[in-house]
Amino acid sequence: MEHDWRNSTVIYQIYPRSFSDSNGDGIGDIRGIIENLDYLQDLGVETLWISPMYPSPQRDFGYDISDFRGIDPTFGTMDDFGTLASEVHRRNMKLLLDMVLNHTSDSHPWFKESRSSKDNPKRDWYVWRGGAKRPNNWQSMVHGSGWHFDNRTESWYWASFLPFQPDLNWRNPEVHAYMTDTLRFWLDRGADGFRLDIFDAVLEDASLRNNPFAFKIIPDLSRGYGMFQKTVYNRHIPENFALAQEIRKIAEPRKKLLIGEVFGTSDILRAYCGTSKPDGLNLVFQFQCLTSPVTSSSYRKLIQEAEAWFPPPFTPTWVFGNHDRRRSIEQCRGRRDPEKLRTLFRLTVRGVPCIYYGEEIGMGQQNIPIHTSQDAVAQLLMKRYPSFAVSLIDRLMHGAVNRDSCRTPMQWNSSSNAGFCSSDAEPWLPVPDSPEETTVEAQQQDPDSLLNCHRALLQLRNRLSPLKHGTLTLLDTPDPVLGYIREKDGQTAAMLLNFSDAPSRVSLDQYSIPKKLVYSTAGKRNSPEDEITLAPWEGTVFFS
Ligand code: NOJ
């Protein structure tokens, strides 16, 4: 049977400003990505997701788009994009674009027109309401009300995220047609699919009903709460689920991938992919790993939840970090061995792993002082609160406020500017002062590096079909050992992971684990006989 690439691929996220600068302006670009495609191919990742590169004033670094069908000169040209797509495809890899359907920049010509007068033809392209008072109690995802008063026409516009990102009005048929045609536009030019930004917020309640009261002081997007309210009318409304199905129909004939950024409990996430059959988005990001304690019991629960809500033919995703959240290795307080164990976990469980650039070498969260942050979220909060409070909120929100800290330049080598840009250029964010071994160059030489752990496991995933396409069964190994088996066409891969600072002994016979050891995060070791003593934080793969 032909496998659908969309259920088993490995996604690597590139934040283009920070990946590789080819022209010495201190900002990464498309040519820089092209120059490093061999590295990515050799690493073994299969699908590249690139954060937005469309024309934009860059106030939210590309998530504020002013033209959906072009490339920002900061990153290159349409020709560069064409070259990128063909170079990616030449290596049998895939390319996902980041599509922001929910909003535009306030510098988009549409919004400029829309705000100019109440009878402008583009007026209805955004969500406007008149009146002296805010139209309702809805809050932005960042802070406070998402309604902003515009003096020109004495009306309010709605913005789900930052004030300079007004929401499009998807109930307007012209908006609907233009935006869905934009997806076709990029598919025709070589995109293999899209990562869909804040997809759960694209449509909002037509009559703008107030969200009901809920006793919740700290907002929690994942559980559907704002401050003192449940976000039932501006998130996850039925029309958003219908939109998922509609876009799937555009992507499906060409087998293109749709992966949604949606925040919610597993039942809601699953509903975006389809209820009885997979007829919505192919995948949604599952963010639980970003905050789960690194213990066998919590990782067992993650698997149980993924298998319960995303059984085949649905596919779970495994996300350890992205450009909005604290870097992955901080979950292990910077320790390499637990991070290797987590790498083995995410590359051997059933589903699509997502790797954020630099995770493969263990790049850490950087200490960028909040008052110097270029992130518009941090800047907005700094206008309202003292810096110690903003830093505290950042910590409580897992790094989602001062996002500069997880966006620093990729560390390629030990030259000045870490090989991200030429030594006489000024990188847009400081190159971290991290240990010399946290570079691609150093880790390539070291067989036991985190980078080589990724590479070996990605190769194994391609070689052993159960790891890529098999079913998953949990073993009832006692804590701190997590065990599971993947099976496909009579072949078995078994994983044993020791989530502990102490060695742990496991009987292989008791759990019917094949005796052939094919990988260990602890380096070379012989296949054991009847039992294995796992070293602290050792993860192993067995195969028959
Ligand atoms: C979610 C994106 O991941 C984030 O970086 C961006 O700022 C907001 N959406 C607004 O588009």
Keywords for this entry:
26% helix; 544 residues; TIM Barrel; alpha/beta; single chain; eight-stranded parallel β-sheet; 14 helices; binds 1-deoxynojirimycin; Immunoglobulin-like
Would you write up a description of this structure?
The protein is an alpha/beta fold and 544 residues long. It has 2 domains: 5-103 and 173-222 and 230-450, Alpha-Beta Barrel (TIM Barrel), CATH 3.20.20.80; 470-543, Immunoglobulin-like, CATH 2.60.40.1180. The protein has 14 helices and 20 strands. The chain has helices at residues 30-35, 37-43, 78-90, 109-116, 173-188, 238-251, 266-273, 296-309, 336-348, 376-384, 387-396, 440-445, 450-463, 465-469; strands spanning 11-14, 47-50, 94-99, 128-130, 147-150, 155-158, 193-196, 225-226, 229-230, 257-260, 283-284, 317-319, 352-356, 471-474, 481-488, 491-498, 504-507, 517-520, 531-534, 539-543. An 8-stranded parallel β-sheet has the order 11-10-7-3-2-1-13-12, covered by helices on one side. Strands 14-15-16-20-18 form a 5-stranded antiparallel β-sheet. The chain has a 3-stranded antiparallel β-sheet with strand order 4-6-5, with no helix packed on it. The mean pLDDT is 97. The chain binds 1-deoxynojirimycin.
The residue ranges in which pLDDT falls below 50 over 5 or more consecutive positions are: none
Q: What is the CA-atom radius of gyration, in angstroms?
A: 23 Å
Q: What class would the helix/strand composition place it in?
A: alpha/beta
By CATH, the superfamily of the largest domain comes out as Glycosidases
The small molecules bound here are:
1-deoxynojirimycin
* Helix count, DSSP H or I runs of 4 or more residues: 14
CATH C-level name of the largest domain: Alpha Beta
**Strand order, biggest sheet?**
11-10-7-3-2-1-13-12
Task: Report the biggest beta sheet as strand number plus sense, adding barrel if it closes.
Answer: 8 strands, parallel
Q: State the CATH topology of the largest domain.
A: TIM Barrel
Taken together, the total number of domains comes to 2
Number of strands: 20
CATH 2nd-level architecture of the largest domain: Alpha-Beta Barrel
- Proportion of helical residues: 25-40%
Give the overall silhouette.
Answer: globular
| Rounded mean pLDDT score | 97
- This entry's quaternary arrangement is single chain
Distance between the termini: 21 Å
